Amino acid sequence: MDFTPTPEQSAARDLAAEIFGDLSTHERLSALGTGVDGELWKALCAAGLPAAVEEIGLVGLVLLLEEQGRVTAQVPLAASCAYGVLPVAAHGTAEQRARLLPALRDGTAVATAAYRATSRPTASARRTTEGWVLTGTFPVVPWLRAATHVLVPALTEEGHTRCFLIETQTVPAPPTSAPPTSAPPAPAAHPSSAPVRTESPVRTEAVETTAPWAAGRLTLHEAPAEPLGDHGTWADVLGRARTAFAGLQAGVCQGSVARVVHHTSVREQFGRPLSAQQGVLLRAADAHMDTEAIRVTAYEAAWRRDQHLPAATHALTTAWWACEAGRRVVHASQHLHGGIGADVEHPVHRHFLWGRQLDAYLGPAPALLAELGTLLTEEAAA
After folding, report:
1. Residue 268: which pLDDT band, with cuts at 50, 70 and 90?
2. pLDDT tens readout for residues 311-370
3. Per the record, which residues fall in region Disordered (predicted)?
4. What is the rounded distance in angstroms from the CA atom of residue 37 to the CA atom of residue 57?
5. Which of 106, 35, 99, 110 is nearest to 73 (CA)?
6. Nearest to 36 by CA among 134, 175, 231
7. How far is CA 214 from CA 209, 285, 320, in A?
8. Residue 198 has what pLDDT?
9. CA distances (Å), 202 to each of 100, 132, 165, 221, 271, in order?
10. Lowest mean pLDDT, pick from 40-44, 260-264, 299-303, 347-351
11. What is the rounded distance in angstroms from the CA atom of residue 326 to the CA atom of residue 345?
12. Cβ-Cβ contacts under 8 Å for 159 (sequence gap 6 or more)
């Protein structure tokens, strides 16, 4: 294994770090509320970063998402690449690639996915004389309010799981003008009072989540859909997505630990920096090691996927680390900030919200372990 980035991957990472650093400041994020940062999304797309993912691969995407996670930038980069650009490029027909990829590359189209990570598909697919139609309800779909396309795994009448794309009949959110600063959303997801769109057979409602992911509730009733790939496509898409979002969690944890390092170095107690206290050192060191575990397992899973090697168990492993270790890191970081860590307007609290949201989105961790154990048992028996 060689995790050394290629020159192209390094260049893309450095460019992403510059754009995220310039635009995802604490002041701008505080003013955004829970919506998409349209100005930042346009800047990323103008720089060609979503389009570059086809060339720099999953390792390159993980590197980009680390930079996003460091500053908790409010853009659908992980979703649109993991559920749009990469699946269409890998599994789409020539016609689908020609029709869908240009808009996904330049950001005028945004993709997300509707599924429950550790359960069988909850949507059903039925073939009609006019094509495929889907029926199902998804309480929380990340970035739905910005999405033009939703990737949905559904059970066919033959009992197979296939991937389908549906159009939400919307356009990405326009650049956000700075609204009045609002308090962070409540941890529990709940529908807002006003629906975003009510067109049938695809209905969506705005949903607020722990982290500001512009999420929504998606209801499909005989919704027209087009198939993407074959029966094995969903397993590939899910493995790539788990790896990508684990990379995002690695960045969230890195940013959180960096804030701990700064705070404990400048904050003094009894005439000495907090970082001189052994208990603080040990807690921070544990957080650093947990962060590195997420990062290296994400690199390994991504590298194996790019090398066309078996990577299903590795994707589950990095997803588990992202859940289990990610939760420990953001809790420790908030704790090590003392009283100000409980301030919902402090930057470290934003990392806490993102870390918990990613834990919930990828997990729960015990279910990932159960799935990993089943897969390892099946491989051993084969």
Report:
1. low
2. 999 999 999 999 999 999 999 999 998 888 778 888 899 999 999 999 999 999 999 999
3. 171-202
4. 25
5. 35
6. 175
7. 8, 34, 25
8. 46
9. 20, 14, 12, 7, 62
10. 260-264
11. 21
12. none
Q: Enter the DSSP assignment of 144.
A: G
List beta partners, residue 228.
163
Buried/exposed code over 147-168 (b: 16+ C-beta within 10 A; e: otherwise): bbbbbbbbbbeeeebbbbbbeb
| pLDDT, tens digit (0-9, with 9 covering 90-100), for 171-211 | 444 444 444 444 444 444 454 444 554 457 999 999 999 99
Q: Going from the N-terminus, what domains does the chain have, and what CATH number goes with each?
A: 7-106 (1.10.540.10), 111-171+200-231 (2.40.110.10), 233-376 (1.20.140.10)
Looking at this protein, which amino acid is placed at residue 364?
P
In the block, residue with structure tokens 């897969």: 375
Q: What is the per-residue pLDDT across 206-225, written as a single tens digit (0 to 9) for each? A: 999 999 999 999 999 999 99
Distance between CA atoms of residues 35 and 172, nearest Å:
11
Separation CA 82–CA 171 (nearest Å): 19
Of 248, 368, 247, 352, the C-alpha closest to 296 is 247
d(CA 59, CA 309): 14
Going by their DSSP bridges, the two strands 123-128 and 149-155 should be labelled as: parallel
Handedness of CA 270, 275, 277, 279 (dihedral sign): positive
Residue indicated by tokens 């491989």 = 379
Cα distances from 120 to residues 92, 115, 141, 143, in angstroms, run: 23, 9, 16, 22
Sign of CA dihedral 340, 344, 349, 352: positive
Nearest Cα residue to 360 out of 6, 177, 118: 118
- Candidates 199, 142, 202; CA nearest to 166 is 202
Q: Which one-letter amino acid corresponds to residue 376?
A: L
315 close to 302: Cβ distance less than 8 angstroms = no
Which residues are bridge partners to 220 per DSSP? 136, 202
How many Å apart are CA 346 and CA 263, to the nearest integer? 12
For the cut 60, the answer to whether the pLDDT of residue 130 exceeds it is yes
- Predicted TM-score (pTM) of this structure: 0.90
CA angle centred on 334, ends 333 and 340, rounded to 5°: 130
268 DSSP β-pair partners: 273
Mean pLDDT confidence for 231-252 = 96
